[in-house]
């Protein structure tokens, strides 16, 4: 099956970059344009096109649109392509009614001018943006409330630009905090005391979960657009450092773990892994903290390289560069936390990195557009320890053997493929104490699938799945109500789902009893607006999934 519109819109979500900050360049070599037209096109390009074609139009999920190509193709060709789309995946922006003919004409001319570049964002800009609201010495010495912070959930309220801190035991909303634009993920510090939230606008908020109620103690903007943040977890470095990766400018920054003071900014611009051509915009995707060395593992999307950034001596930074495949996106650990498995989603491969020996051990072929989130680790009754991913492009749920010692014949091979409800899946989840494997189908065009969840019995995988109507259980009324991202509580006996509705409709979080698979609680407080990712502190710190 070809990609659905939902899938394309997912990869092409609006950028966090404010078009007003770009350098305007109506150059004489492109077709005539007014300043207003150029401004309109710049804004529209960031909102609709940059996610796939890149800010500098060098191409990523979408084809390159540099002026050497676009001028040769000319206005008529570009207008037709934008209007009708292409079988290769370009949406039909004209016939869908998204853009008028006049707007398409402006965009076609705009693409024949040099791209307006957003500014760089180095240490001085980061330092200027950095606000230490509460200094470490002014923070409480002990926890100021009776909640168990390890069972807190940091919940992304995407379109509200907020994070909700919800207590997993009582289901109380302990705090709602204003964070970045279209806020994306939260990762806790190794002690579990601090939660670091990053917005698509590259703003990081550091939340002190010991305060009553939890508060933001430091804020920094590490670029113009970003998706990932992580903290140091290696023994002796707990809570010492944080790292964030940016989409624009393409770079990562290492910060002080107590204050977010920026220490070292490193560009990811460079050569692609395969053709070894220069790429000016290799965005930083997932980052995980190694448990085996004082290292951050950094996925660089467009160059297809995985960097092992050793933070033992930040002034003499040593980086191991592992060649994998394009375009690296998300991933997680195997159950032993030695091997990092990550999706190269345009190569339809899973790259496996040995974090002890610092090398690539496999580049396993899977089916169309793997999207694991952090993946799910299961002890397969037949194949032993395996790591599981679902996919955007088809209904396969793919199991990779992860036990080179106990089951060497299965290691890094696809040992089992299950059929799920359909494509458009974003996340899978299980827990070491659970017998369930949960698979969402958030972006499936069929509402019956996007609003429900498939659950497999790990001890009887061939039996197929049951479907739980999560959105129906939430009983919210109108709207798309997509069910997204299963997440366990600390005890591993409850699983939480977001029912992600639009901004003007009601959303909720649905809590399911893991043993009985029955509804346990609907958290439908009106402050829960557009919930998506949920990060249980204990499970995220300890990489339990
Ligand atoms: Fe995400 C993780 C990038 C759209 C929800 N997302 C990630 C990571 C990256 C990423 C690089 C890994 C971070 C890490 O582990 O360090 N996401 C992107 C995109 O580029 C993309 C495709 C489009 C965009 O422009 O942002 C995108 N993501 C989305 C959504 O539309 C989702 C579904 C809803 C939302 O909140 O925006 C979404 N992404 C998530 C979630 C995670 C995530 C919930 C963390 C999953 C986990 O369990 O760790």
TrEMBL record:
Assembly: Homodimer.
The protein's Enzyme Commission number: 1.7.2.1, 1.7.99.1
Cofactor dependence: heme c; heme
Keyword Heme: yes
UniProt keywords, alphabetically: Electron transport, Heme, Iron, Metal-binding, Oxidoreductase, Periplasm, Signal, Transport
Residue range from the parent sequence: 170 to 714 of 714
Molecular function terms, GO-annotated: electron transfer activity; heme binding; hydroxylamine reductase activity; metal ion binding; nitrite reductase (NO-forming) activity
GO cellular component, one term: periplasmic space
Subcellular locations according to the entry: Periplasm
Annotated protein name in UniProt: Nitrite reductase
Domain Cytochrome c positions: 29-115
């Amino acid at each position: 099956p070809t990609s659905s519109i939902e899938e394309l819109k997912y990869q092409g979500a609006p950028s966090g970059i404010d078009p007003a900050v770009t350098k305007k360049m109506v150059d004489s070599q492109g077709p005539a344009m007014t300043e207003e037209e150029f401004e309109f096109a710049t804004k529209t390009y960031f909102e609709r096109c940059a996610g796939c074609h890149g800010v500098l139009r060098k191409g990523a999920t979408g084809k390159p649109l540099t002026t050497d190509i676009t001028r040769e193709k000319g206005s008529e060709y570009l207008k037709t392509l934008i209007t009708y789309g292409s079988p290769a995946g370009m949406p039909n922006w004209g016939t869908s009614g998204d853009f008028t003919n006049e707007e398409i004409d402006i965009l076609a001319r705009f693409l024949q001018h040099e791209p307006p570049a957003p500014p760089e964002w180095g240490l001085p800009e980061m330092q200027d943006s950095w606000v230490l609201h509460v200094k470490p010495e002014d923070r409480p010495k002990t926890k100021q409330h009776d909640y168990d912070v390890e069972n807190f959930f940091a919940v992304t309220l995407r379109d509200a630009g907020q994070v909700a801190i919800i207590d997993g035991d009582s289901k109380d909303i302990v705090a709602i905090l204003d964070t970045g634009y279209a806020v994306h993920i939260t990762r806790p510090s190794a002690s579990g005391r601090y939660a670091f939230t990053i917005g698509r606008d590259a703003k990081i908020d550091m939340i002190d979960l010991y305060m009553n109620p939890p508060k933001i103690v430091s804020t920094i903007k590490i670029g113009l657009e970003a998706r990932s943040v992580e903290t140091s977890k290696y023994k002796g470095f707990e809570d010492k450092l944080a790292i964030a990766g940016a989409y624009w400018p393409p770079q990562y920054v290492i910060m002080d773990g107590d204050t977010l003071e920026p220490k070292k900014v490193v560009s990811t611009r460079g050569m692609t892994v395969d053709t070894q051509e220069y790429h000016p915009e290799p965005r930083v995707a997932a980052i995980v903290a190694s448990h085996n060395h004082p290292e951050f593992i950094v996925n660089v999307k467009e160059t297809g390289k995985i960097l092992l950034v050793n933070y033992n001596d930040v002034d003499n930074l040593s980086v191991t560069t592992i060649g994998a495949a394009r375009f690296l996106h998300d991933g997680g650990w195997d159950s032993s936390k030695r091997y990092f498995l990550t999706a190269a989603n345009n190569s339809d491969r899973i790259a496996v990195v040995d974090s002890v020996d610092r090398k690539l051990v496999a580049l396993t072929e899977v089916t169309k557009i793997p999207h694991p989130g952090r993946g799910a680790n299961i002890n397969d009754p037949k194949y032993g320890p395996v790591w599981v991913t679902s996919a955007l492009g088809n209904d396969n749920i793919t199991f990779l053997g992860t036990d080179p010692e106990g089951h060497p014949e299965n290691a890094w091979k696809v040992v089992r493929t299950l059929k799920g409800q359909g494509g458009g899946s974003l996340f899978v989840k299980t827990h070491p104490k659970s017998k369930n494997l949960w698979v969402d189908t958030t972006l499936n065009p069929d509402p019956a699938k996007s609003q429900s969840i498939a659950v497999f019995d790990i001890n009887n995988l061939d039996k197929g799945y049951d479907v739980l109507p999560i959105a129906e259980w939430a009983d919210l009324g109108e709207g798309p109500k997509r069910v997204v991202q299963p997440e366990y509580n600390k005890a591993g006996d409850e699983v939480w789902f977001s029912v992600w509705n639009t901004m003007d409709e009601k959303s909720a979080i649905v809590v399911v009893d893991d043993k009985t698979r029955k509804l346990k609680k609907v958290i439908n407080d009106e402050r829960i607006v557009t919930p998506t990712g949920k990060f249980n502190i204990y499970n995220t710190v300890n990489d339990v999934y």
